[in-house]
Each structure stands twice: as C-alpha cells, then as structure tokens.
TrEMBL record:
PANTHER family: GLYCEROPHOSPHODIESTER PHOSPHODIESTERASE, CYTOPLASMIC, GLYCEROPHOSPHORYL DIESTER PHOSPHODIESTERASE. InterPro entries: GP_PDE_dom (IPR030395), PLC-like_Pdiesterase_TIM-brl (IPR017946). It comes from Paenibacillus septentrionalis. SUPFAM superfamilies: PLC-like phosphodiesterases (SSF51695). This is Glycerophosphodiester phosphodiesterase. Residues 2-238 form the GP-PDE domain. Gene3D superfamilies: Phosphatidylinositol (PI) phosphodiesterase. It comes from the Bacteria. Pfam families: GDPD (PF03009).
C-alpha cells in the first residue's frame, strides 16, 4: 500500500516539524513522517525546515549559529497558533524514538543546499543505525552530492532524489547515485514513468500532495509514497473511506 508520509508532520493542523505535529500525524493515520534535518553549532541534529530561525521562532539567527540549549529555549509553536505555545524544535533523537515505537517510516530530508553542515551525512546515517531503523528510513536531499555521500558511507541506507521538474529518465540517473527512490514534485510524475522506474527497481515518493483528486491519481499510478500536509485525507482514501 502507498505510504502516507506526513509532511513535516501534520503541518496542515499543527506547527510544522514539532512533536505535536508528528504525534498528531500518527493519530490521523500517517504511516510515515517526513522531516527536515539541520545541525546546531554544537553538532546536534535538529528538525527544522528553514536555515534561519526567524519564521518559526521569531529569532533572526541561523540554525548553525545556535547551540541545542539555545534552540530548545525558543518557542516554535506560537507563530502558528497560541494553542501551540511552548512547542520546541525537536531533535532527530526525539522523532526516532517515536518512529521506532509506532513502527512507521521516516523520510529524513537533509538540508545541505545553502549551509553545508560538516559530516551531517555520517551523523544521520550513524543515528539511523544506532536506533536500528535501517528498514524504516530513507534519506532525501535536493543536494545530490549529499545523497552520493550517504550511499558511500553505507550502501544499505536508502536514499531518495529530491527534484522539481524536467529530470530526463530520472530512474537511470538514480542508479548513478545508488538511489532507490525519486522524490519528485507532484507535477513531475506520470503513470508511465512510475512503471518505467519500477522496472529499474526505483520507486516514486511524491510531494507535496494535498488535494484528494491528486492523491487518487497518484495512488492509481502506483506511486510508493505520497507526502502530504493532510495525512487524514490520504488515510481516508487508502482505507476506502474517501
């Protein structure tokens, strides 16, 4: 069955990349979580999309320039709603514990396109192995050099190529990186391409899909995973209730 990846958690209902969003996603039927990983000044892996903390915490600093203790002191929930005041930026450890407990998938997007975090690939791979989540995790990135680096560290770790559009025969390209998945924007997928990729041992996980008619089309096309802000909508379709 198609994996229901909650985009930054249930970000249609909660502040993105918070434990509240991750927990609620599971309640809504998500069978996977998608999140963004960056690194603090003291080398801790934390879950936040933007390189700058301004949008979600109100502090005009880069993630790379604050320690974990400084980051944990910030409010990452109030920007979305006062109902979530006090939500923190989580660590990768916190989410991995949740994922392990609920036996769901985890899509870790390493954010290393603007800030090149030193050795973040090894840190993420080591963390996956430490939790025994090799079969439940996939690493994605728009920086494909980073994905090649992950594959070099451990060829058994699954990787997914993030891209927007116009990648010619992406399944062939994926094989040059040792990648197992194509993480394509929703408009860069056709049923024919899904079948062609599958014949080469490459799957599609598609982002970010929030409309039910788009979800239906992608399910029919046979994609392996759908990344959505509204995991409840996808859950209803996958369980025959939508």
């Amino acid at each position: 069955m198609t994996i229901n990846y909650a985009h930054r958690g249930a970000s249609g209902y909660c502040p993105e990349n918070t434990m509240a969003a991750f927990r609620y996603a599971i309640e809504l039927g998500a069978t996977g979580i998608e999140t963004d990983v960056q690194m603090t000044a003291d080398g801790e892996l934390v879950l936040i999309h933007d390189e700058n903390l301004k949008r979600t915490t109100g502090i005009d600093k880069l993630v790379k320039d604050v320690t974990l203790a400084e980051l944990k002191a910030l409010d990452a929930g109030s920007w979305y709603s006062t109902d979530f005041a006090g939500e923190q930026v989580p660590t990768l450890d916190e989410l991995m514990e949740l994922v392990k407990a609920h036996h769901i998938m985890l899509n870790i997007e390493i954010k290393s396109g603007i800030v090149l975090y030193p050795n973040i690939e090894r840190s993420v791979v080591d963390k996956i192995k430490a939790y025994g989540l090799e079969k439940q995790c996939i690493i994605s990135n728009f920086n494909h050099y980073s994905l090649a680096g992950c594959h070099a560290i451990d060829p058994q770790i699954r990787t997914g190529i993030l891209y927007m559009e116009g990648l010619y025969r992406p399944w062939d390209y994926a094989q040059t990186l040792g990648a197992t998945a194509l993480h394509a924007a929703k408009y860069a997928v056709t049923p024919e391409w899904v079948k062609e990729a599958e014949s080469k041992g490459v799957i599609y996980n598609v982002w970010t899909v929030n409309e039910t008619h788009e979800m239906k089309a992608l399910i029919q096309a046979g994609v392996a995973g759908i990344i959505t802000d509204y995991p409840d909508r996808l859950h209803q379709l996958l369980t025959g209730k939508g």
